[in-house]
Design goal:
29 strands, 2 domains, Pectate Lyase C-like, 51% strand, elongated, 11-stranded parallel beta sheet, 6-stranded parallel barrel, 387 residues, binds 2-acetamido-2-deoxy-beta-D-glucopyranose, single chain, mainly beta
């Protein structure tokens, strides 16, 4: 009898010590009414999961959860999985989150998955303030991953961010897949996904409709892979703006393929300020892209100056752009100049390669324009290459 009991006890012990815990935020006190502040329950779930030696899961059941700015900080003892079936909403008064850098922040985490879920920052109040030209807080990013490694973000939906929807900063090995991003085309500064100082980020099978860049790629981005992204409305997929600072990390090895741009302000763009800088862009492949009435389908702009307020515009950009390939890019341009390279005269673009680029404007020929750009063209290239 004692022997049997010992056996049962040891089986039970094995069962509990090997099973992974699930921390349900509702069990920890979160209300699903979208009106009661749920932040503390989420933080409690995080501290339990993060301090556990097992790879535990935080579960967010269906419902609406009112969230104030929240910081989910590592390092954790093991990886953490966050499974969301509900919607996280920001307070309707935009000021509550607008002065925090980020509404939802994951920082210094090694091993994290965020699966499913909807986040709604209710950015309209801040956009209205900005559009009215009042003095407004700068606004919060919706979800930020800072100094995080080995992260998977899958099936997340983000509505109406105040500024950027998703930010990946100082990270390694991040997979973003099947995300959906939605904000109106006139919403200011609402970049879809911003990546900087990060290596090995992949963004796949995602839909991005927003008011600024669908994806913006900042300094220090290396080995970025973007595939099957539907962009538009939005400002396209942009490397830059770069060269704002004299000392700046470069961007290298970026692939953008199998993607579409519909009614966007740009297709694939590289932009840098006309200022001295030691930054660079090296090794970019744009492949199999469709432009549906995109303005500036292919553009390099090294005299970028968004508010036309650049007293130093006469200067040249120090950013060196090289080895950029455009392969199999087709469709329609909403402006006559479909291929436009405005490179720096002190640092001309080199190794630009156009292959099978076919872009039309109003059923007719589009134009291409080159300044300080050199490279080669092959295959069918319409408009004709100016390289
Ligand atoms: C470029 O980045 C891709 C991932 O996007 C990676 O698979 C490849 O190895 C990188 N190439 C080099 C030369 O680092
Ligand atoms: C750069 O382009 C401008 C405009 O086309 C041209 O005037 C200038 O001579 C070019 N500079 C060099 C170094 O080719």
């Amino acid at each position: 009898m004692a022997k049997q009991l010992a056996c049962i006890l040891s089986l039970l012990f094995m069962f509990f010590s090997s099973s992974k815990a699930v921390y349900n935020v509702v069990s920890l006190g979160a209300k699903t009414d979208g009106k009661t502040d749920a932040t503390q329950a989420f933080l409690k779930a995080w501290s339990l999961a993060c301090s556990s030696a097992r790879a535990d899961t935080i579960y967010v059941p269906p419902g609406r959860y009112l969230m104030k700015p929240a910081e989910f900080r590592g390092p954790c003892k093991n990886r953490v999985n966050v499974k969301i079936d509900g919607t996280l909403v920001a307070p309707s008064d935009y000021r509550v989150i607008a002065n925090s850098n980020s509404w939802l922040l994951f920082i210094q985490v090694n091993g994290l998955s965020v699966t499913g879920g909807t986040i709604d920052a209710q950015g309209a109040g801040l956009w209205a303030c900005k559009t009215a030209g009042k003095s407004c807080p700068s606004g919060a990013r919706s979800i930020t991953f800072n100094y995080a490694n080995n992260v998977v973000i899958s099936g997340l939906t983000s509505y109406n961010s105040q500024i950027s929807h998703i930010v990946i900063n100082n990270c390694n090995n991040v997979m973003v897949q099947g995300v959906k991003i939605v904000a109106p085309d006139q919403s200011p500064n609402t970049d879809g996904i911003h990546v900087q100082f990060s290596t090995g980020v992949t963004i796949t099978s995602s839909s991005i409709k927003t008011g600024d860049d669908c994806v913006s790629i900042g300094p220090g981005t290396k080995n970025l892979w973007i595939q099957r992204v539907a962009c538009g409305p939005g400002h396209g997929i942009s490397i830059g703006s770069l060269g704002k600072d004299l000392n700046e990390q470069g961007v290298q090895n970026v692939t953008v393929k199998d993607s579409t741009f519909t009614g966007t302000d740009n297709g694939v763009r590289i932009k840098s300020w006309a200022k001295p800088s030691n930054g660079f862009v090296r090794g970019v492949l744009y492949q199999n892209l469709i432009m549906n009435n995109a303005k500036n389908p292919i553009i390099i702009d090294q005299i970028y100056c968004p508010d036309n307020n650049c007293p130093n515009k006469v200067q040249n950009s120090g950013v060196k752009i090289s080895q950029v390939t455009y392969q199999n890019i087709r469709g329609t341009s909403a402006t006559q100049v479909a291929v436009n390279f405005v490179c720096s005269s002190s640092n001309p673009c080199t190794g630009i390669r156009l292959q099978d680029v076919k872009l039309t404007y109003r059923n007719g020929a589009a134009l291409s324009s080159c300044a300080n750009a050199s490279g080669t063209a092959g295959g069918v290239t319409v408009p004709g290459s100016c390289l």
